[in-house]
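Bump. Still looking for Isoflavone 2'-hydroxylase structure tokens.
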Amino acid sequence: MAFLFQKFQEAVRTLAKSPTFAKDPRHLQFEADINRLFLYTSYNRVGRDASDTEIEEIIDMGSKAPLADQQEQVQENIYSQIKAFCSSMDDILRTDSRSTSESISTEQNAGPRRSGLSLAVGRSAQTKTSPGVPETKPLKLSEVSQLFKDLSGYTLKLKPSQIPHEEAGQGLFIDGEADVGSIIAFYPGVTYSPAYYRYIPGYPRVDAQNPYLITRYDGTVINAQPWGVGGETLELWDGSSVPEIKQAVQGAETGSDRVWKMLSKPLEGKQLGGYGEVLERRNPLAFAHFANHPAKGMDPNVMVCSYDFPLVEKDMRMYIPNIVIGQGEDAKMKKIGSFWFKTGSAGSNASSYPVLKTLVLVATRALSDEEVLLNYRLSNAKKRPSWYTSVDEEEDRRRWS
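Sorry for the wait, here they are.
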């Protein structure tokens, strides 16, 4: 089995660098990343007890399947894991014994939800008047985390990073074991499409004092700073709070930064007429923003995966630690069995449903009681911080070309 997995990893490296379908460097890197994710998540879906034939089939599909088909399979594989995660969270936190179908039926028949702080849960009186919001157990985040580990085999911990640099600060560690292709962490926070960049705090120098921003290939930005380290309850969260996160930030504010602040300021989200979502803040995996970049001589062990969560999945929504600024996006979603994924076609089985654009970190090898390391892929067009050592300069150039 070890030899076969080594062959699998060699196939990942070979196929990921193949320029077969590339039209430009950025698209080439996008395809390479999708190909890796296809192989990793498909391997995870089959399981560690997969036969030699099954592994060979995955490798063969990775070399022949069109990019669109691989994207759909990645989305389905991630959806399968998220659904299992939400089921585990229900087992840990729900006080009722309703099935998923009963939960959906209750919410659909409950009529329009009331908005505002009256929806905040954790208090029995408010829960009783809001049938669409489940009642949960009064467990602390640390207790939820341990119970999740008991069910899944791993959870996440924050503690001083092992990166040998004074600015490493807090590090993200996996407590337990996870297979290759597993979702290790969610990237939580507030999402902004390109049309709403001006609402990002600190605009236009959005990254000057905020290291908790990440960008998807489609330009969607997620700001994890308001999420912080989560919370201790199921609550109405609008992303307005910005807790202090004890993590070193590269460099102090410069005179140039102060000038930018005077010349331009971000628009306030309240101008959009938006509202929060009832989210489970005791999410034991909502810590992707604490993953550090590997030091020289170290290898990343996770990679970023964009995932479009179908908002029609009402019973799972409270476990997705993101809210969107502005209007959400309708996408062509197709359902096969119990799985939803975005499709570029408008066939008879595809319908437009709103999606929430998110990011997760996927394990690129089996992990066991170690620090989670993510290749930041910082642009080489800007001055990089002293702690940054490129994992692959060619990938960095292609990603930001």
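Residues 67-93 form the longest helix (27 residues).

Edit: fixed formatting.
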